[in-house]
């Protein structure tokens, strides 16, 4: 609780005790009690005094007419303004202390509801004729810790810049439904904001987990690749991954002349090149004859050995296997 509000509550307690005492039996006593409570320099809240049975008894039809207006006057001090006092008939007159108190309380309400707060607005609302009188009232409110403000008489128009207002006005019972509705809407908006924030947090966590899993999978793949690379002891053939590189010979040795023939030859046992080999006896399936081609292996090939120039050459049949 604000210290200013606490001091105001403490200042009201003596009047509450008197209202609840056995001596508070006559309307005149209660009327004097209200006058003293509203004239005290440190009392700014009056709801607790309003709730006492002796004060509420002033609403009775049996109350003399001269005292009936004191209950309404106390209600104006609790949550009303100077304008309310001016426009409400049959109210008791105010002394100087009450006039100052009601203007200070009205200043609190106006400071919380009107922006910008100009000199002219306050002078009209508080029935003040001179700017100097208004400045004296505002200065008194500042030193009493009722408001935090700065006077700006040199601006056009002259204004009062209020930055904070003490919580020293009671809540009007008729405004409770409106306040509850406003607070309910505010609670709903806060709940929606919290739900949106929680959903965003959950999304961020999910995305983060996916990124971590992806990075971990990538790291495992890289480590596995490097491990396989390091464990491969042989030289791989780029055309046949995982196989050993085949050794190719540029020719075959025949006779005394060294390498003969102008065709490259390799051993048929090295690997299957996808073609049919007719062999020395030219035995092959005739159904593939239209798609095969004979290749002269040349003199001194590895098939005929060194049989001489008159020897029959072995032929290879070119043609893709189906």
TrEMBL record:
<feature type="region of interest" description="Disordered">
    <location>
        <begin position="295"/>
        <end position="322"/>
    </location>
</feature>
<protein>
    <recommendedName>
        <fullName>PCI domain-containing protein</fullName>
    </recommendedName>
</protein>
<dbReference type="InterPro" id="IPR000717">
    <property type="entry name" value="PCI_dom"/>
</dbReference>
<feature type="compositionally biased region" description="Low complexity">
    <location>
        <begin position="298"/>
        <end position="311"/>
    </location>
</feature>
<feature type="compositionally biased region" description="Basic residues">
    <location>
        <begin position="312"/>
        <end position="322"/>
    </location>
</feature>
<dbReference type="InterPro" id="IPR045237">
    <property type="entry name" value="COPS7/eIF3m"/>
</dbReference>
<feature type="domain" description="PCI">
    <location>
        <begin position="1"/>
        <end position="165"/>
    </location>
</feature>
<dbReference type="Pfam" id="PF22061">
    <property type="entry name" value="CSN7_HB_subdom"/>
</dbReference>
<feature type="region of interest" description="Disordered">
    <location>
        <begin position="231"/>
        <end position="254"/>
    </location>
</feature>
<keyword id="KW-0736">Signalosome</keyword>
<dbReference type="GO" id="GO:0008180">
    <property type="term" value="C:COP9 signalosome"/>
</dbReference>
<comment type="similarity">
    <text>Belongs to the CSN7/EIF3M family. CSN7 subfamily.</text>
</comment>
């Amino acid at each position: 609780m604000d210290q200013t509000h606490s001091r105001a509550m403490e200042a009201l307690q003596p009047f509450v005790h008197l209202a609840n005492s056995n001596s508070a039996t006559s309307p005149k006593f209660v009327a004097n009690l209200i006058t003293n409570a509203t004239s005290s320099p440190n009392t700014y809240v009056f709801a607790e005094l309003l709730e006492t049975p002796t004060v509420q008894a002033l609403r009775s039809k049996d109350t003399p007419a001269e005292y009936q207006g004191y209950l309404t006057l106390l209600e104006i001090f609790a949550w009303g303004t100077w304008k309310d006092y001016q426009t409400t008939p049959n109210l008791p007159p105010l002394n100087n202390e009450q006039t100052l108190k009601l203007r200070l309380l009205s200043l609190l309400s106006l400071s919380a509801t009107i922006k910008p707060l100009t000199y002219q607005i306050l002078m009209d609302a508080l029935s003040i004729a001179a700017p100097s009188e208004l400045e004296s009232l505002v200065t008194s409110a500042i030193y009493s810790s009722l408001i935090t403000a700065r006077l700006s008489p040199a601006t056009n128009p002259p204004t009062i810049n209020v930055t904070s207002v003490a919580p020293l006005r009671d809540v009007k019972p008729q405004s409770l439904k409106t306040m509850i509705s406003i607070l309910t809407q505010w609670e709903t908006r806060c709940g929606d904001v919290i739900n949106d924030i929680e959903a965003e947090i959950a999304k961020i966590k999910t995305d983060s987990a996916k990124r971590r899993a992806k990075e971990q999978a990538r790291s495992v793949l890289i480590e596995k690749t490097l491990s396989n690379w390091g464990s491969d002891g042989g030289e791989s053939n780029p055309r046949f991954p995982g196989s050993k590189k085949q050794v190719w010979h540029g020719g075959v040795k025949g006779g005394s002349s060294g390498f003969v023939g102008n065709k490259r030859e390799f051993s048929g046992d090295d690997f299957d090149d996808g073609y049919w080999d007719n062999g020395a006896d030219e035995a092959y399936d005739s159904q593939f004859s239209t798609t095969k081609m004979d290749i002269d292996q040349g003199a001194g090939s590895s098939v005929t050995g060194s049989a001489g120039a008159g020897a029959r050459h072995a032929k290879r049949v070119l043609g893709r296997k189906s």
